[in-house]
Specification:
One of its GO terms (molecular function) is hydrolase activity. By secondary structure, this protein is of the alpha/beta class. Helix content is 47%, strand content 13%. It contains 10 helices and 6 strands. Helix 2 runs parallel beside helix 8 and helix 9 packs across helix 10. The longest helix is centred in the N-terminal third of the chain and has 18 residues. It is globular, with a radius of gyration of 18 Å.
Length: 219
């Protein structure tokens, strides 16, 4: 086991499209049905937004399931973001014990992992802790994950933070990758916000409506 010392401050601590990968673990019907700390529809909205953001910025993304013939295939809205990708189906509860998944990450050459999974306290916490021990900087997306109870979700989060992992939300992931509205990906990110951003989407649509009435705005 390597000693993991994640970079927590300064510019190197921030995610970029070129320094991270995204792992989406076990967003399957059986697992979704057990989520109790967040509304399932909201969690699905968030993980689809997360996946679309990764795709828009070219972040390598791995889809994986566990015993899909029993727990069900990956939920359709998420699979539809990457229709060409067949999720890696595992038997291991801990994704980081599956050689295919670890080798996929290793081939990217990237050392920052962003992970969302069902359930938080098990299928998220286990690979987060394991990958930290292998020297990776690990970030986990709380609102694109879910636990079997509020307590289970919160204790899973506490355990991962205590070990050195960094929590974030789906919206933060997009903002952190964009970081400058002058970058050409701004249009793609705005589309994702409009589709999945809830109250933020409503505000953005209103702003675009107001700007559309002003000559010279280009809206």
């Amino acid at each position: 086991m390597k000693t993991s010392q994640p970079v927590k401050v300064g510019l190197p601590s921030l995610l970029t499209p070129d320094n991270c990968v995204l792992l989406l673990i076990d967003h399957q019907p059986f697992q979704v049905s057990g989520v109790k700390n967040i509304d399932a529809a909201l969690m699905i909205n968030n993980v689809v937004s997360l996946a679309k953001t990764a795709k828009a910025f070219g972040v390598p993304t791995l889809l994986t399931t566990v015993v899909a013939d029993r727990g069900g295939r990956l939920i359709k809205p998420l699979q539809d973001v990457f229709p060409e990708q067949t999720p890696i189906d595992r038997t291991q509860i801990n994704t980081w014990e599956d050689e295919q998944c670890v080798q996929w990450v290793e081939r990217t050459g990237r050392r920052k992992l962003v992970i969302a999974a069902l359930w938080t306290e098990i299928c998220l916490a286990f690979p987060v802790l394991h990958a930290l021990g292998d020297g990776y900087d690990v970030y986990f997306v709380t609102d694109a994950s879910g636990g079997t109870s509020v307590e289970a979700h919160e204790m899973g989060i506490a355990r991962m933070i205590q070990a050195g992992a960094v929590p974030l939300t789906a919206n933060v992931f997009g903002a952190e990758l964009q970081r400058d509205w002058a970058r050409p990906t701004a249009g793609k990110l705005s589309e994702i916000i409009l589709e999945h951003g809830g109250a933020t989407a409503t505000n953005l649509a209103w702003e675009l409506q107001l700007l559309a009435g002003r000559p010279g705005t280009g809206v």
